[in-house]
Amino acid sequence: MTLAYLMQPTAWLILIVVFIVLFGARLPDAMKNLGASFSSFKKGMKEGEDEAEEEKKLKN
Predict the structure, then answer these.
(1) Is residue 7 in a domain?
(2) How much of the chain is in helix, strand and coil states, percent to nearest 5?
(3) Which residues contact 27 (CB under 8 A, 6 or more apart)?
(4) In Å, how far from its chain's centre is CA 16?
(5) What's the rounded Cα separation, in Å, for the pair 51 and 49?
(6) How many domains does the chain have?
(7) Please, what is the Cα angle at 26 between 23 and 27, to 5 degrees?
(8) Is residue 9 part of a domain?
(9) Inter-residue contact 5 to 11 (CB < 8 Å)
(10) Which terminus of the chain has fewer Cβ atoms in its 10 Å neighbourhood, N or C?
(11) Is the residue at 5 inside a domain?
(12) Which ranges of the chain have pLDDT less than 50?
């Protein structure tokens, strides 16, 4: 299997189908965890920005 073969759309389609067949039952939980992680990351970034603004105000 060469790299050129893996770049073809049919190869991607086959890989996606195999992935879904093997891990299809776990996909909803994985997506739920991914969404929770993303939300937590965004919350942490906002808290970090808020702390930076507070420090900036204290320095002035």
Answers:
(1) no
(2) 90, 0, 10
(3) 20
(4) 17
(5) 5
(6) 1
(7) 85
(8) no
(9) yes
(10) C
(11) no
(12) none
Structure tokens at 59: 């320095």
pLDDT tens for 12-29 read 899 889 988 988 888 889
- Sequential DSSP letters for 23-43: HGGGHHHHHHHHHHHHHHHHH
Q: Is 7 helix (H, G, I), strand (E, B) or coil?
A: coil
Token pair for 57: 């105000």
Domain that holds residue 45: 25-60
With beta carbons less than 8 A apart as the criterion, state whether 50 and 56 touch.
Answer: no
> Phi and psi of 7, rounded to 5°?
-85, -5
Looking at the chain, how many residues does it have? 60
Please report whether residue 11 resides in a domain.
no
